[in-house]
Design brief:
Length: 68
């Protein structure tokens, strides 16, 4: 999920907690795909809800700070 997608969904009315859940789900799915190959089975790290919330809040905060 890119910064533009996060901001678009936030502007459409989704809360930051829902965005964090969506971000976490998509990120962890990508890690599962990467880990499905034998040589990459230990690559990447799954993220928690708090880490996903941190990413979403950072994007939203930067956007709001840029507006002012």
């Amino acid at each position: 999920m890119t910064k533009e997608e996060i901001l678009a969904k936030w502007k459409d009315g989704l809360s930051k907690n829902m965005l964090a859940k969506i971000y976490k789900r998509e990120y962890n799915q990508q890690i599962k795909i990467i880990r499905s190959e034998l040589k990459n089975r230990h690559s990447g790290k799954f993220i928690t809800n708090y880490e996903a919330l941190k990413e979403v809040e950072t994007v939203i905060y930067e956007y709001i700070k840029y507006l002012k």
